[in-house]
Design goal:
This protein has twelve helices and eight strands. By secondary structure, the protein is of the alpha+beta class. It binds flavin-adenine dinucleotide (FAD).
């Protein structure tokens, strides 16, 4: 037993060495003071050109790791991955975090679509989509939310009707991150109105170049337009692009949503050291309130790290991820909220400056304003609390008469 453990540890160690050597030869190491990283984040938030430049950099990087055998480390070889373990994937991410690399636009695809396709896709769907995604050829977006269906996602009203070999989709989606640069999307539509809401939804894979799709960018509080509203008018989707069973989309959706919470709960680009450096820059490390804020921030980041370890240990032991993903999502939400306040408190009156007038090109103001994206996206804090109250603490559930009535009969906003 000990020998087996030793062999596994040695293997992981040698993998880490391989990754380190490759990264050192192929990527630029992030400078200790992180100023370059901050300037890049601030710039990406300021112009459309720098955003498209970011997309190209993400594609180039994804292609590079694919060619080197580091894309989809835990994805089976037959689907374009390396066939390694989730632990190896994590080692690669840990090491890659030390380098200046752009990956953002692939987050939906790699972190959410890959696990969903692996769990629920047909052999044909996996072989068609996974290698293209891992190679960096296809960016994916998520077309779930609607103007009347966010927290209550199962209340969606985009409709899909069968017409021969295809489904015809009509409706509107909203808050779709990266839809304006995406090649494919995962989408939910109602296919049966005469059953309770969770039982009439189908999960589709949509080619974003299909006629009838119109993507309109929405500008966020940070100034960047990273998400969009998406209008679907008579969009034809071939029947082979249904993921899972017709009307069985809600089950498939759970895999995606759990992966999304893990993605968002997985962390943020900033560490405690960045806040300490900010306090040093402003000469405020002697200030009692700032010291307390820094200590609390450090404590939270350590708690988050251990929460992550706990979730990974559960997964490794084969225990399914359950409400832990909600705990992680809630914890990171609190962390970005407190950290946003801390950064601006450290800056004091300078916090009122913005973009190039502000310290580090307004990076800290971006962090403060960006907190709502993290706290709302992937399920709001209130909704995570509901999940934890009901599924972990066993509290009485909210009254939901709309869970049992046919969807057609549920009153809706016009
Ligand atoms: C940065 C960002 C990126 C996103 N990216 C995507 C994407 O790529 N694709 C996609 O499909 N969607 C995306 N979303 C949408 C996101 O999933 C929704 O915003 C989220 O689910 C909340 O839905 P809503 O905005 O409709 O708010 P609502 O559901 O209308 O909620 C409004 C308020 O009511 C509260 N509330 C609602 N129901 C309850 C309840 N039962 N109990 C207590 N409080 C409640 C909420 O907590 C919130 O405070 C993104 C959102 C953000 C912010």
């Amino acid at each position: 037993m000990t020998d087996t453990l030793d062999a596994a540890a040695r293997q992981l160690d040698s993998f880490r060495h391989e990754v380190k050597a490759w990264l050192e030869a192929n990527a630029k190491r992030r400078r200790h003071d992180t100023s370059e990283f901050k300037a890049r984040v601030a710039a990406t938030s300021q112009s459309r050109e720098s955003e498209f430049e970011h997309v190209e950099k993400c594609k180039a990087w994804q292609r590079k790791i694919y060619d080197a055998g580091f894309a989809g480390i835990a994805v089976p070889v037959e689907y374009g991955g390396r066939g390694g373990s989730a632990t190896e994937q994590r080692v690669f991410q840990q090491e890659a975090a030390r380098y200046e690399i752009d990956t953002g636009v692939f987050s939906v695809g790699l972190a959410m679509v890959v696990p969903t396709l692996l769990a629920c896709g047909t052999e044909e769907q996996k072989r068609k989509h996974l290698p293209a995604m891992l190679r960096g050829d296809h960016i994916w977006c998520q077309l779930f939310s609607e103007p009347g269906a966010g927290s209550d996602l199962a209340g969606l009203t985009t409709r899909a009707e069968r017409d021969g070999d295809s489904w015809v989709v009509n409706g509107q989606k909203v808050w779709n991150s990266f839809a304006h640069v995406s090649d494919w999307g995962i989408m939910l539509a109602r296919t049966d109105w005469d059953v309770p809401k969770h039982r009439g939804i189908t999960y589709f894979l949509v080619d974003m170049r299909s006629p009838g799709i119109e993507v309109r960018p929405l500008r966020q509080i940070t100034g960047v337009a990273h998400f969009n509203e998406t209008f679907l008018t008579d969009v034809h989707i071939p029947t082979e692009n249904v993921l899972g069973e017709v009307n069985g989309g809600w089950g498939v959706t759970q895999t995606t949503l759990m992966a999304e919470r893990v993605l968002i709960g997985g962390g943020m680009g900033l560490g405690f050291r960045d806040f300490l450096e900010l306090a040093r820059h402003y000469g405020r490390t002697d200030d009692a309130d700032v010291r307390q804020g820094l200590a609390a921030s450090y404590t939270r980041s350590e708690l988050l790290r251990w929460l992550g370890e706990r979730a990974r240990a559960a997964m490794k032991a084969g225990r399914p991820m359950g409400p832990e993903s909600s705990v992680a999502k809630l914890a990171i939400s609190q962390h970005v909220f407190e950290n946003g306040n801390l950064a601006l408190a450290i800056e004091g009156a300078d916090a009122m400056l913005y973009e190039d007038d502000a310290f580090e090109h307004g990076f800290w103001q971006q962090q403060f304003l960006g907190q709502w994206g993290i706290r709302i996206g992937g399920g709001t804090e209130q909704v995570q609390r509901n999940i934890l109250g009901e599924r972990m603490l066993g509290l009485p559930p909210e009254a939901r008469p709309d869970k049992t009535e046919p969807f057609r009969e549920i009153p809706k906003n016009a």
